[in-house]
Amino acid sequence: MSVVQLLTRPSGFLPIAMSAAALGMVVWYVSIWGTTPQPDESGQARLWQLLMAAQLPVIGYFALTWLPRAPRHGMMVLALQSAAALVAAAPVLVLGF
Fold first, then answer.
1. Which pTM value belongs to this model?
2. Could you read off the pLDDT of 30-55 as tens digits, one per residue?
3. Are the C-beta atoms of 52 and 88 separated by less than 8 Å?
4. Which of 54-87 are b and which e, b meaning 16 or more Cβ less than 10 Å from the residue's Cβ?
5. What angle, rounded to 10 degrees, do the helices at 71-95 and 10-33 form?
6. Number of Cβ atoms within 10 Å of the Cβ of 88
7. Are 63 and 47 in contact (CB under 8 A)?
8. Beta-carbon contacts of residue 65 (< 8 Å; ≥ 6 apart)
9. Are 77 and 62 in contact (CB under 8 A)?
């Protein structure tokens, strides 16, 4: 199995897509509302949290399924998934939302 083949599996690409959606939400929110602190957590913040938390079981399933079968390529996909999650979380951590 190659990395590209693993990324075609739903458990391979879904966490990356969820991170991209979460990052898109942050970019959209900042472009509309700016970086001023809000008095209450908005629906977008809760949806972002759900997207980020829902990745964990999918990543766990991927690791349990594909690491024993293709350890080298599985680790590369896990690194991509982790990097995508960090990129999606970075603006929230830096801006302090």
1. 0.89
2. 898 888 777 777 788 899 999 999 99
3. yes
4. ebeebbeebbeebeeebeebbeebbebbeebbee
5. 10
6. 23
7. no
8. 11
9. yes
